[in-house]
Amino acid sequence: MNARFLLHLLTTAPKRRQGQAGFSMMAGILVLLALVVGTVGLSSLVASNLLGSREQGSSSEARSAAEAGIDEIIATWNQPQNRKLLVSGQAMNTWAGSTTTLQSPCVTTDGTATRPGGTGQPTTQAKSFGDGEFRDVENPTKVNTGTRQFALVRVVYSAGPAGNTNRRAISVASTKTGGVTTVGPSFTGNFSDLINLDDPDGTGAALPGSNGGFITVEVQGRVMRGGTPVATATVTREFEVLPKCCGASFGSNAAANLGSDKRACGVEFGLITGINGGTHFSYWANDRFTTVNKANQVVNITSMIGIVNKGETTFDRANWRVSPNSKSVNSTTLGTPSDASWWANINCAQCGSASDKLGRSISGIPIIPGTIALPTIGSETTAGNYYYTWSANGWAAATIASNYNIPNNALTNTSTTTATVAANVFNPNPLMRLQSTGTTWRFTFRTNTPTTPTAVDRPRVEVCTLATCTSTSWENVSDDRIADNFDAGTYSGNSGNTNVTPATAQWLHPATSTVLGPWVEVDPVGPSQDTTAGKVRIVTTTAFGASSNALRIGDGTKTTNNAMSVSRGINLSGFETSGPRLKFQAIATGFDSTPVPETITVQASSNGTTWANIGTITTASANTARTYVTSPIPSANVGANTRIRFINTTDLDAGDTVTIDNIQLAPRGGVNSFCEYTTTSPQTVLPGFHCIGTIFDLDSGGSVRMDTTGGPISFYYSQTGDIRGSTFADPLMSADNNATIQHFRCTTLSDNCTTPIPDSDPYSDVGVPDRLNFFGRDNGSLTGTPGQQFITIGAAGSVTGKISRAWFYFPWGNLRLISEGCSTGVDPPGFATDPNNWSINGRIWVSSFRPCGAFHFRIPPSSSVGLSAAFSTGFNPDYVQWTGVDWVARAVSSSRNYDD
């Protein structure tokens, strides 16, 4: 009832006796006032109750909005392309502009190299939560709209150092306005690296989630009325973050097989065997296969691959892919002297687990059967992914071509000799056997890329044979080749490489030095410049192998001293200090040593007047075809009008002749060249050096040093007809008696670089050449040979040979490793405790792999984003066709709500 209405009723009541009326009026007023006060109180109480109820409802709505926001954020970040946000450890205000740092590590292995979502980049929505803006619960893409809104206030990432069971030991917190605050022990690398599937103790017993972590999200919710917030609430929740294989499901934290997903995952490509039907050897389970993870821990690798045919699912002893097996024989010729005996004892106590005895794992490391189409290498006649096309008529190409026409094939290491050889020349035959002479023997390869390359001073491969090298002890083995093999039957032949640099460095006319010129003869009897008559002429001969043209000096009549010569000009401007040299083949017929040794002298001049002797052909080579290397041309005789000459500097009797062929000039002195440089290497945009593979015979010990300071280097044993190393007794490479093939790289060029490349130095992607590569043949059907290319590294003593930081890709390769003479009961000193007591450090892709005795292999991380460059097809459906490790947030472990 309205108070004013009540007051009006009181004032209009009928009149009574004055005294009675006064009393009555006063009583009525008091009653009415009481009613008014009660009504007002009741109204206030009702209003207060309604307001409290409304406020309580708004607060619940705000908490509900915060809870919904948390669910939305975690659900969005759990999507495959967004999962790096679960472990990023980065400041919230950097997410929007982040690219590679938030990219998913997952990549398909089906040959397409696809990432989640196409690019692996988080969605715009996933990153936008970092701006801290309020978003509509119903449509999170909208900012500052809707009646129920949420905003990410703070995120805390938690994990522990490698191997630490306290997975909250390290925390990284961030808000939208600040950077990051880190609490706990320091760590190297990215925070996400702490949450991984690595074996925490190196025993091989790692379970998914061993190195897990947590993420805590703090979200504020609010309720809006008429554009004004009427209630807010903040909710904080922690989620467990588990690492898992990309593309695979996961079970509980203690699941040993990724829950119900039985497929193999996280497959590594560092060790691949069984190519072209080869085998993998394992008897005693005493080998170590380790890698270095992102936390710089030495841990066991997760798997190796055994190549099987399409439709096959096993790689073990039962199908004869792991030896010894039921088909094994004892044979010293095959290098299997005890295999049949070992097969009879394959269930020995030291033969490992049940899986090891079946051959389905090697020393505890699973063999994953894979139907992978590996890339071809290629050769000089077939295309491939890695073969380098040698420069036409360059040293390497000419060597390959000529050797295939020589009886017994020089690729089988036929010997050659030299006449005059500089002190630092290792051998005139670039396909020689690098054969050590003892434990102190040393041979060094060095890649040298000048700071400012020029046409003359360009990138090159150099070798040194001294224990301590100096600036003058290096020989260039990647030079240009200016040559004449006389095949044209004229004096104007030019059979050198067509891309010689500078282009002016070619055979030039001695009189002009500006145009291509011929050999100029001085013939006392024949018509001038007649190639078919006289004492100087071109003849056909088989003296150097197959029938070919060659230059002959001398005839059936006596020739007096200095009466007969032939010379040719060449522009060597810029090479004055490079020590140009000649290399040629010659056979002297009828030469006598009395009364004076009959001689043809090789000379050089800068003007055709003053000549310097650089070599001789004497009685020492009488009636024997030999390869000659001259001394370097003196710098005073090097220039734009350099000339070389063959002249008889003694009398020659009637019938005395010298036949010369394959005259080659190296402007930088590299007459033993077998390497070349290219600005882009196969399968990579990086520059690189390429060499015909040499035989490394280190059975007597010693060391070959590979210094790749100037760039990566590859050795090719991939020529179609290269039959070297086709027997166990004469392998392509052998290292015994503490021999090593060491790999070094320094920050600047050094004459004696001894800085090892650390395991932390990033390897190239799988399928992309690394800094040191050895490539074998694709072809295994060579007539009269088993088709295999043998590599043997071993020791009968206590210390094995070592090869560091290399990729061996031999589709028909048989890599044999011998430790302690294949003794089954002896381990090398420190084998089980020294993390660096490895014998081979690198990737191994071979047909057959035979580690006999205790061996330690260091395999680089080999799950790669570059798989599409290597593989034309992926795994069969039994495999998770992804590589990499990602994460999933699950199982809320704690939460806290409070109102603002």
Give an overview of the whole structure.
There is one protein chain. Helix 1 runs antiparallel to helix 2 (18-77). Strand 23 (536-541) and strand 24 (548-553) form a beta hairpin. It is built from six helices and 45 strands. The strands form six sheets. The chain has a 22-stranded mixed sheet that branches. Strands 2, 3, 4, 5, 6, 7 and 45 form a seven-stranded antiparallel sheet that branches. Strands 20, 23, 24, 26, 29 and 31 form a six-stranded antiparallel sheet that branches. It starts with a helix and ends with a strand. The model is unreliable at 1-21, 202-208, 251-259, 404-431 and 796-800 (pLDDT under 50). The chain is mostly beta strands and 900 residues long.
End-to-end C-alpha gap: 41 Å
Q: In total, how many beta strands?
A: 45
Radius of gyration, taken over Cα atoms and rounded to an integer in Å: 41 Å
Total helical segments:
6
- Major sheet summary line: 22 strands, mixed
Which percent range describes the beta-strand content? 25-35%
- Unreliable spans: 1-21, 202-208, 251-259, 404-431, 796-800
Share of helical residues: 10-25%
Shape: elongated
Average pLDDT over all residues = 80
Derived from helix and strand composition plus strand pairing, the structural class reads: mainly beta
Q: What are the key terms here?
A:
900 residues; mainly beta; 22-stranded mixed β-sheet; elongated; disordered N terminus
Topology overview:
Layout: H1 3-11, H2 18-77, E1 107-108, H3 124-128, E2 135-136, E3 148-159, E4 170-175, E5 180-183, E6 213-225, E7 228-245, E8 271-273, E9 280-281, E10 288-292, E11 298-300, E12 304-307, E13 322-323, H4 339-344, H5 354-358, E14 361-362, E15 365-370, H6 395-403, E16 433-435, E17 442-448, E18 460-464, E19 475-476, E20 482-484, E21 507-508, E22 520-522, E23 536-541, E24 548-553, E25 565-570, E26 581-589, E27 600-605, E28 612-617, E29 626-629, E30 642-648, E31 657-666, E32 675-678, E33 688-692, E34 695-698, E35 703-707, E36 713-716, E37 733-735, E38 740-744, E39 772-775, E40 789-794, E41 802-818, E42 840-852, E43 856-858, E44 882-883, E45 885-899
Parallel strand pairs: 8-12, 8-42, 9-13, 10-43, 12-15, 16-34, 17-35, 33-36, 34-37, 35-38, 36-39, 37-40, 38-41, 39-41, 40-41, 41-42, 42-43
Antiparallel strand pairs: 1-44, 2-3, 3-4, 3-6, 4-5, 6-7, 7-45, 10-11, 14-15, 17-18, 18-19, 20-31, 21-25, 22-25, 23-24, 24-31, 25-30, 26-29, 26-31, 27-28, 27-30, 32-33
Helix pairs in contact: 1-2
